[in-house]
Design goal:
Layout (H helix, E strand, L loop, with lengths): L9 H9 L7 H11 L4 E4 L6 H15 L10 E4 L3 H14 L7 E4 L6 H9 L3 E4 L1 H10 L9 E4 L2 H6 L3 H10 L5 E6 L4 H10 L4 E4 L10 E7 L5 H11 L5 E4 L3 H14 L3 E4 L5 H13 L4 E4 L1 H4 L9 E4 L6 H8 L9 E7 L4 H11 L5 E3 L28 H4 L10 H10 L20
Parallel strand pairs: 1-6, 1-7, 2-4, 2-5, 3-4, 5-6, 8-13, 8-14, 9-11, 9-12, 10-11, 12-13
The chain binds adenosine monophosphate.
The site of adenosine monophosphate has 14 residues, from α3.
Amino acid sequence: MTFEQLGLSADILRAVAEQGYSAPTPIQAQAIPVVLEGRDILAGAQTGTGKTAGFTLPLLHRLAETTRKGSRTVRALILTPTRELAAQVGESVATYGRHLDLRSAVIFGGVKINPQIQQLRRGVDILIATPGRLLDHVSQGTLDLSRVEILVLDEADRMLDMGFIHDIRKVLAQLPERRQNLLFSATFSGEIRALAERLLDAPVSIEVARRNTAAESVAQRVYRVDRGRKAELLAWLIGSRDWRQVLVFTRTKHGANRLAQYLDKAGPSATAIHGNKSQGARTRALAGFKKGDIRVLVATDIAARGLDIDQLPHVVNFELPNVAEDYVHRIGRTGRAGREGEAVSLVCVDEDRLLRDIEKVIGRRLPAEVLEGYEPDPSIRPEPIQNGRGQRAGGRRSEGARRGGRPGGKRSGSGARRARRCRWQYPLHRQQQPRSGDAGVG
Ligand code: AMP
C-alpha cells in the first residue's frame, strides 16, 4: 500500500513525501479512505501508530477540496485532552497542510487569551483546542463553531478520564447537526461507547493494535524492590546501563518533583513535567529532553499524555498507575515504529494488587525479577497507596478526603498520618551502588 493509492491530493502527497514517510501505517491505510468518503469513524489506536496523520491528512484533503467563499470560519475542530497534544497535533496540521491554502490555530489554557482572540479574528479553518479554553472563547463570543464540518475527538478516553465530559457536551451543543465525526481512543470503556453512540452516525470501526494490548516490540520487566529504595535503584539502573533517554512515571506531581531533584543530584540530568508547571517550562523541558540535554523526564500520567517523543528507548514505571489502562498508555511511549523498547516497572509490596490488575488488562503475566543488592526486605508490610488527590488506589476516598480534605490540599487527622507513612522515602546521601557485590540483571 502506498500513500498515492489512498486518493490524497498531490499537495498533500508532496508534504507527506517531504516528511520521509514511505508507506502508510495500518491506521492510516484503514482510516484515510473512510474519512475521505465522509463517513464517521470510531478508531482504536494509541499514540505511536500514526493516528494523527490518519485523521489529519484526509481532513486536509476534504477541506481543500471544497473552498468556501467569504471570510474564514472554523470548518474542522480537533479536540485534545492536553495542551501538549494540542500543540503536537497543531504541528502535524501545519506540516501536512503546508502546501494548502488553509489556516490553522491551536488554542489551550494557561497562556494569554488575547493573542488567541486576534488569531481567531484573522480567520481560521482548522482549530485544534483543549475543551476548557475553547469554551472560554465560546462564552466570550470570540469563536463561532456553527459552521464546523468535521469534528475530531483525539484521545477521547483521556478526555473522559480528565473529567471533560461536560465540556465536550457543551462543545457539541455549539456544532451544527450535520457534520463528520472522528473519534480516536486507546481504550474502550462503557463511557466511551456511550459517547460514541451519541456522537457517531453509522461509524466505521477501525482498530489497529488489539484492545488494551501492549505493543509487542516492548520488553516489559518488573523489578521487585522496597518502596524506600526505588529512587536509588533507578539512579543505579540509569547509570550502570547507560540509559540515555528515559521517561519515568510517578503517581503524583509532588513525587515527580522529588524524584527529578533526587536524580539530578545523584547524577543523570533530570527534570519533572506536570500540570503545575507553566507551558513555557514544559516546552523547555520537552525540548531539552528531545535534544538529549536532559536525560530523564519525570512525568505524571496526565502531563505525559500526548507527548510525542519518537522511539523512546526506556520507559520506567517508578510507581505503577492506579488505573491499569494507564500502564498501556505509558508503555506506548516506547518501542515505536517497529523499534525495540524497554518498559521497566519498579514494584514494591504495596503494589501487588495494581500489578495483578495490569496483568488482567494486558492479558499476560509479567514475571518479576529481583536485582542482587536490591532484594526486598520481607519484614516490610504493605501500606495503602495514596495518589495525591486524597484518594486511595482503586478510587476509594481516603479518611482525610472524607473528612473534607481538599483534593491535593492539606490533610488532617489520621488521614495525614497515613499519607505521611506511605510516601516512599530515601536518604539523599545514599550510595548509588547496590548493598552487596555487583548487581546482576536477575
Ligand atoms: P502518532 O501516532 O500520530 O503520534 O504518530 C507517531 C509518529 O509516527 C509521529 O512522529 C509521526 O511523525 C510518525 N509517522 C506518522 N505516519 C508515519 C508513516 N506513514 N511513516 C513513518 N512515520 C510516520
